[in-house]
Write a structure and sequence with these properties.
The protein is α+β, with helices and mostly antiparallel strands. Helices cover about 35% and strands about 15% of the residues. The chain has 2 domains: about 70 residues, Ubiquitin-like (UB roll); about 70 residues, Orthogonal Bundle (DNA polymerase, domain 1), CATH 1.10.150.120. Helix 2 packs across helix 5 and helix 3 crosses helix 4. The structure holds FE2/S2 (inorganic) cluster. InterPro entries: 2Fe-2S-bd, 2Fe-2S-bd_dom_sf, 2Fe-2S_ferredoxin-like_sf, 2Fe-2S_ferredoxin-type, 2Fe2S_fd_BS, Beta-grasp_dom_sf, Diverse_Oxidoreductases.
Amino acid sequence: MITLLINDKKYKLDIAPEMPLLWAIRDVIGLTGTKFGCGIGACGACKVLVNATATYSCLTPVKDVVGKKITTIEGTTPNLQLLQEAWAAFNVPQCGYCQPGQLITATSLLNTINNPSDTDIDEAMSGNICRCGTYQRIKSAIQHTVE
Ligand code: FES
């Protein structure tokens, strides 16, 4: 039995310790806001916060996050909420598929650096791919949040 703390709720799951966290979140628990993109840590669509840090859930076995605080896009933190408001104000999403991962990565950035520079933003967001090319709107929304 594996116990996970996700969005402040405890889940006791009868799953293999090696199961990727993404599978547990989406297929076992049914929180489908976190997306599957590549499954190999190359796109960022699957990112969730583990404690306060953006983490590739497709690469993380559930046994590695037992006892840690997991936040998905369905959860809330002060920085995530601020960023979601900016995302709406700047009409960031196009198809929207990658945006949960983008928001989680941006939240992790603001959890680490209060007032990130353009370079900080570019570096932090570089692991998140958007096939619609919303990169400039993402950057503007993050900049607006920290102004
Ligand atoms: Fe995890 Fe692409 S699905 S990085």
